[in-house]
Amino acid sequence: MSHTWLTITLGISNLEKTNVMGLSMPGRVESEGRAFSYSSLPAGDPTDPVAATSFIRRPFGWTRWDTAEFGNGRLVAFISALLAGAVVTNLIWLPFSTVYLNRSIWFDVAMAMPMALLWMLLGTMRLQLRKTPFSYRDMVSDFAGRIQALAMALTALTLFSLVLLLVSYLATATSRPLLDNYLAAGDASLGFDWVAYVRLLNAYPSIDHVLSMAYSSLSIQLLLLPAILALTARTDRLEEFVAHYGVAGCLTCLVMMAVPAAGAFDFYRPSPDILSSFSSGASTRHLGQLHALRTLKPFLLEHAEGLVTFPSFHAALAAIFAYSTRGIRYISLPVYALNAIMILATIPEGGHYLVDVLGGLAVAAVAIQFVRWIAVPAVEFGRRSTLARPTTGSRHARNTGALGLVCASRVWRRGDLK
């Protein structure tokens, strides 16, 4: 045992007053201006100085490398139940619909399998690491845990996307009248002129190019954001993001069933001269499939398109992306700016009404609040996860991502955290 560790252990003589590396004992952990209860610590008596501070030896923001990756059990269970419920809904609904699936759909489903397999392999490896002590065991296990969390998140996001996309097709196959006139009336009541807005943007091709890139960034953000959260050891935030995505997607599908619409391009049918600067067919590709589904004739789903008009799922995800990066140094501000532009782009690029955008933002707000309620008591309102936030070095590792692994390895060599 290093001299540093011995000094820390022996130096805790008054549990009521001593503060060591961010610990205020007994019963509370002080970190980043917030207090957390010891009730969430995985093992040990909180009045025992060694047990209470043992998590200092587990860097990068996790309490113990063999338990912390499971994060908020309530949230994980909710995500699993929500995904299972969406799958069951499709299985029950599909035989009674006019939608038929092409065999190629199973290739899309299989895309999630490598990530699930990677998650299982990394879990097996980490179990074996418990029995194989070596100098860098904790660092290797920690990095593997981050990749494991990323693999699980990408698996869930892929499955949610496929399942909810199918729900949107099943919901579109209806003979109910379209309600675009009500959505357009909603825009008018807000004083918003859709055609004038698109004509104004069309006069500035450079702005249109920026809007098009921001609108197309959704799929890239769906990959990069989970990677950032996982590699910076924000497992609780990653689970929260997956839950937000699932809840927002389900709410969007429920609302679109009640408010079927084709979109502003189909309703206003603007002349080509006011669309010359926008990406070709970006907002009209879905119309052929949408009207074919509404004939209630057999429809073979081979190539999927986004069919949702109200509420805007792009707007909902833009708000969720921004919320998920709150407080992350060097990341949050660029994400805020990008998604603010994406929200503006949903009208000309996505063919949405203004009320679609407002509806999407409302869906995001409901999803965020609902997930916070589900996560209680593991995550208190207005606070971060009760997983202990250990040392200053760990917070640096969270802020710097992979670079923190290299820096922390030097600390281990000195024996400070060994």
UniProtKB/TrEMBL annotation:
InterPro entries: Aur1/Ipt1 (IPR026841). It holds the Pfam family PAP2_3. Keywords: Membrane, Transmembrane, Transmembrane helix. It comes from the Bacteria. Residues 183-368 form the Inositolphosphotransferase Aur1/Ipt1 domain. The chain crosses the membrane at residues 75-93, 105-129, 150-171, 213-233, 245-265, 306-323, 330-347, 353-375. This is Phosphatase PAP2 family protein.
